[in-house]
Design goal:
By secondary structure, this protein is α/β, with parallel strands linked by helices. It has two domains: about 200 residues, Alpha-Beta Complex (2-enoyl-CoA Hydratase, Chain A, domain 1), CATH 3.90.226; about 45 residues, Lyase 2-enoyl-coa Hydratase, Chain  A, domain 2. It is about 50% helix and about 15% strand. The protein contains eleven helices and nine strands. The strands form two sheets. The protein has a six-stranded mixed beta sheet with strand order 1-2-3-4-6-9, with helices on both faces. It has a three-stranded mixed beta sheet with strand order 5-7-8. Strand 1 and strand 2 form a beta hairpin. Helix 1 packs parallel to helix 3. The chain is globular and about 65 Å long. The chain starts with 7 loop residues before the first strand and ends in a 10-residue tail after the last helix.
Length: about 260
């Protein structure tokens, strides 16, 4: 484990390839300071080049998952150029999550507000403690959560996303699951076990199939239906030619478990 005084702690990748990154500013409700943005970006870049990585879990220390951007830092440098650079860095970070070849799971406890809610929405999957709460609350301070709204509106319906954006109100974990912001909700003491079940299901599958599928999943969402089907058909054909898929289909035909090994 890294130095616990750092803004972000990377835990050693386990034998299955699960990498855990822990936001580590509990005294500041894990607000996304510039140092934390830089550290998280560096670790995601490292995972992107780690062929042994299979799943990333983004967790947080303390009572909160993430309270959004560090407002004290933001207020200390009130210039348009600074704010444009800050939000550009945040956007790069969020897109890096989507572009990783492995699934990213948000482990959410406590509150996830503003850019913290955006972080949850940008993760491929999210598991929340039953006492977690979510909001895009910038509007309460006179700052509409525009960039979090991009991620939020790609997770929940337009009307629910807009309601959250214009009211800034908190929703609980059960409501977040109903809306599609999180996949699973667990009692706080069962949160890690639920994360483990989800991660174990993913790492049991061939890495190449998951990577190809994740890339296609997000590409087709932004395309028209004809282009999406063309892309999906090509991707599936290429996937079928991979040794893992050929072995999986052969194993099915022979009524046995596939022998994937470390693929």
């Amino acid at each position: 484990m890294s130095d616990p005084t750092e803004a972000l702690v990377r835990h050693a990748r386990d034998a299955r390839g699960v990498v855990t990154l822990t936001l580590n500013r509990p005294q500041a409700f894990n607000a996304l300071s510039e140092a934390m943005l830089e550290a998280l970006q560096a670790q995601l870049d490292a995972v992107a080049h780690d062929a042994a990585a299979r799943v990333v879990v983004i967790a947080a220390a303390g009572k909160a998952f993430c309270a959004g951007h560090d407002l004290k830092e933001m207020r200390a440098q009130p210039s348009l150029a600074y704010y444009q650079e800050l939000f550009a860095r945040c956007t790069r970070l969020m897109l890096s999550i989507q572009r990783l070849p492995v699934p990213v799971i948000a482990r959410v406890q406590g509150v996830a507000t503003a850019a913290g809610c955006q972080l949850v929405a940008m993760c491929d999957l999210a598991v929340a403690a039953s006492n977690a709460q979510f909001a895009v609350s910038g509007v309460n301070l006179g700052l509409f959560c525009s960039t979090p709204g991009v991620a939020l509106s790609r997770n929940v319906s337009r009307k629910f996303a807009f309601e959250m954006l214009v009211t800034g109100e908190l929703i609980d974990a059960a409501r977040a699951r109903e809306l599609g912001l999180v996949n699973r909700v667990a009692a706080p003491e069962q949160l890690d076990a639920e994360i483990e079940r989800l991660a174990s299901s993913i790492v049991a599958k061939p890495r190449v199939a998951v990577a190809m599928g994740k890339q296609l999943f997000y590409r087709q969402l932004e395309a028209g239906i004809v282009a999406a089907y063309e892309d999906a058909g090509t991707t599936m054909a290429c996937n079928m030619m991979d040794e893992a898929a050929l072995e999986g289909v052969q194993a099915f035909n022979e009524k046995r478990l596939p022998s994937w090994g470390a693929r």
